Amino acid sequence: MHNVAILLLFAVGILTATRAKANILKIDQRIIGGTAVTINSFPWQVSLQSSGEHFCGGAVYNENIVITAAHCLQDVKISTLKVRVGSSYWNSGGTLVAAAALKWHTNYDNLTQVNDVAIIRLATNLTFSSSVKPIQLATSDPVDNAAAVVTGWGRTDVGKYSRPSELRAIDVNIVSRVKCSSSRYGHGLYVKPSMICTYANGKDHCYGDSGSPLVSGGLMVGIVSWGYGCALPGYPGVYADIAYLRQWIVTNAITI
């Protein structure tokens, strides 16, 4: 009975953390262990903004579609949603584009973060350049321990509310789904088939980096989704798996 109680408490803790991450994006935002980079190195990266404030990231899919996380859009009014493209800074430069429509996966679950993917159709088409380019989607998962990089404008210091204005990136390594859901790490059975993981000591995505792309081998392989804490030992960062969700993206990018 004692063991059952511990497991139940652990489950509640994990799910509460998952829901909290989706609900406090605008309050506690950071990317842990990152370095400043330029948009020309990651020209698919975009900043999602509401009422002039950055709250999530995203990636350019084509001239009028941006990919992000479903949990990023749950409380967003399309009339206030803007997307900044082509800038290393979330608060200046590049082009600020209005959103015309948004859609998230029909089977998205805001408690478990299963199928955490969404798309935004922009009100005007993008003009591609050295700082604005689409990224191709992976058709299969990268191998375990493959090198990957995740970008975003999240906070870099747990104790400070201010976020860096300049884009940052962290190098991480892919953790296979089998390994990520095993007893080796702390997430266990909460890692589902629609998810992919990364791990690196002292490095992780967190909160405001949600929706940003995980890239490996020049392909987008994941979307920042959730985690238990940020850069905690034994807890990988968890992403929506692009290869698993690719067909939904391709189909709905045409029909949205």
UniProtKB/TrEMBL annotation:
Entries under SMART domains matching the protein: Tryp_SPc (SM00020)
* Compartments, record wording: Secreted
Q: Name one GO molecular function term.
A: serine-type endopeptidase activity
**Sorted UniProt keywords:** Disulfide bond, Hydrolase, Protease, Secreted, Serine protease, Signal, Zymogen
Task: Check the record and name the InterPro entries matching this protein.
Answer: Peptidase_S1, Peptidase_S1_PA, Peptidase_S1_PA_chymotrypsin, Peptidase_S1A, Trypsin_dom, TRYPSIN_HIS, TRYPSIN_SER
> Upper lineage ranks?
Eukaryota, Metazoa, Ecdysozoa, Arthropoda, Hexapoda
What does the similarity note say? Answer: Belongs to the peptidase S1 family.
Domain named Peptidase S1: which ranges?
31-254
Which processes are annotated in GO (biological process)? proteolysis
Q: Which CDD domains match?
A: Tryp_SPc
Q: Which Gene3D superfamilies match?
A: Trypsin-like serine proteases
Provide the protein name: Peptidase S1 domain-containing protein
| Residues making up the signal peptide according to the UniProt record | 1-22
- Presence of keyword Nucleotidyltransferase: no
Q: Which GO terms describe its cellular component?
A: extracellular region
